[in-house]
Design brief:
This protein is of the alpha+beta class and 37 residues long. The chain is built from one helix and three strands. A three-stranded mixed sheet has the order 2-1-3. It is elongated and about 30 Å long. InterPro entries: P-loop_NTPase (IPR027417).
């Protein structure tokens, strides 16, 4: 629990968990799509 559950989110093509968190773990596809928007 170094960062806390509310501070970390997970984004994949199939699901988004805590997508408004300050720290996000995501696939490269999601990151690429975010950069091109």
């Amino acid at each position: 629990d170094a960062f806390g559950e509310s501070n970390v989110g997970l984004l994949t093509g199939d699901s988004a968990i805590n997508k408004d968190a300050p720290i996000l773990i995501m696939t490269t596809e999601i990151l690429r799509n975010m950069l091109y928007q």
